[in-house]
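Entry:
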Amino acid sequence: MLLDIKDLHAEIGGKEILKGINLQVREGEIHAIMGPNGSGKSTLSAVLAGHPAYKVTSGSVSFNGKDLLSMPPEQRSCEGLFLSFQYPVEIPGVSMVNFMRAAVNEHRKFKGEEPLSAGAFLKLMREKKEIVELDNKLANRSVNEGFSGGEKKRNEIFQMAMLQPRLAILDETDSGLDIDALKVVAHGVNQLKTPENAAIVITHYQRLLDYIVPDVVHVLYKGRIVKTAGRGLALELEEKGYDWIKQEVGE
């Protein structure tokens, strides 16, 4: 089991947001997590990534057989966890090349591997840029500085391609994307899928799942996963909306 979440409770500022999450993700799987605003989707991704503002009050998370919650965020990354942010931040003054080279070599150091030479790194970067059609001009600028929303999302998937995580969490990657950018981002995610890795796709809308086809769909509502099924569940939500889920849980 790559990821095993058991009865996870978490809060921020004293307010409980996650109220007993149970989720299992195996290698080779794509899971979609859907739900209305305020249901806890982004909180779940932040907790898994180790955001310090969120406090886990009970439950456990095993990642690749290790206790994820005991690790600092940088170790979670080196162990193979990747989070694509809903709103990627800009980092003025830090070039994309230097940023990615530091990240890649830090991961290699963690695994006991030698750092990549400048030539080998640039070759790898050229290969991965093609997956998401990232413009050379963007790659030579500061991280996300002056990027459009679509360019920032492409850059996130490019970073994912460079780091080759075991588990990628895509937090509303489709937010603000036009259809062409959505297709490019989804193509990148699909290209990076292997039998050894997995992805959790967090989204409000079914349209992303036309391009990134999930094996399992979960509905997160008021801090709990209240329904789990195949891809058809996303289509049902698109048709009926989330009021239907409220009826399902007896509200």
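The chain has a mean pLDDT of 90.
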